[in-house]
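Note to self: keep these together.
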Amino acid sequence: MEAVRENSAGTSGATQLRELFARPGVVRIVGAHNPLGARLAERAGFDGVWSSGLEISASQGLPDTDLLTMAELLSIAGSLAGTVDVPVVADCDAGYGNALNVMHMIRRYEAAGLAAVSIEDKVFPKVNSFIPGRQELAGLDEFCGKVEAAKSAQRGSDLMVIARIEALIAGHGMEEALKRGEAYAESGADAVLIHAKGSSPDPILEFLRRWRLDLPVVVVPTTYHTITADELGAAGAKMVIYANHGLRAGISAVTEVFGKILEEGRTTGIEKRIAPLATVFDLQGMAALKADEERFVRERGPGTRAVIVPGAPTAALRDPADDSRSGLALLRTDALKESGVADVVEAPGGAGQTSGDAAAALAGVPTGFAGRTLVSTDDVFADADSLNRLTTSTADVAVLVDVAARGGVPVALSSKSIGGRLLAGTRGHVVTALGEKVAGPANGEFTGLVSFSARGFTALQQAAEKRAMGQDHPVSLADLLSDLIATGWTVRATGVAEGWTHVRSQDELRELRALVSEQVTA
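Structure:
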């Protein structure tokens, strides 16, 4: 079940409406067809909002003849209820079908936070009450069944069902109107709405005089507009609906303003007569949005970048038709994007070089990056799952280690092998030595992929600068990691047994490119 929206005081619209009906005095609500109109109604001081079928249909450029579906009307009614703190009463025409349709409608409107629904006793599809011609009433027993179905379908007790009497509209006379009203009350309606379309309020006043039941009566003085709400209240009406005046006022005002703009060729003449943009922003709730932004919106972090450095000499991978090296070309794939890498930096002397001097390359990478840096040698490829293991790490230095392999650059871990399985213990996998520094048995193979925090990458660059000074032979990424370990840095290992490869030949390169292309297009 959907949650019913409550107002700022923690009271649902349905509860509010029942409280208004229980108090002395007349309840006044006004029509709207969008949330802006509802907010204007609330600010003007109306007790509630009428989600007007006529206004909504007209705003869509359609006649009010049940052309719009329940879902379309509910979408707008729900948006009104979600915008204002006053109760919203929905015009539900003839209930969108028979009693079963009414039950479905009640559940949906109640869940959307509407305070009340009004159902009229005309045949579906109905025609607007003020349109001459067909105004056919539903059978009395049929409509009583709709009212009973509506009340049985609601989940809570607060939603009000208003039975709208169209007997006077259809020309059936006062006796029929009273008979129907009494039958609807007996069927469980929470209120009746007596509708009329003459210029005189006399038929409505007669109905109110002759109404003997202790059930609220709702009126809609669209055509008999000379009588006041207080006068109608004194005569016995409990709610007065000004059903379509916002729409009609808007049509007149917009027509006049648009005409003046075309006539004068500029807007200067009407600027003082239309709302300033500041009012628009106010009605949009911009001040509240800015306050929430200040409280809750956090700046997006700097993200992750990838830095490509030279690995082992791989001159055999140079493609005569393509200057790029395998790592740089293949890492610029969806795998990097999927692992959150927003930028790829080719370290100076990196891809395209065969020296394997990672120290010289890293010393030239721009400093000051506050995010995480993924460092890769240029002859390695990894899939997104493996890269994610590194980019989501919180360690200052995290190395991707293949714990199922023993070739390439060896890695020694603090982990212990028990029953043929490598267990990390409480500290996790920690690298104790790489490459030439591994004295005893290795626990795995270095993949050539390392992830650094901003702090860790600064330490790596400092180690690279020291190595680059006066060094006459290439320095590998494994050498630099060994230097970090020697100076007290904890280098953590993320263990994998698949998802990566070194590319050692043109044949492997072509095969891998074909595989990546196949995965991207699959």
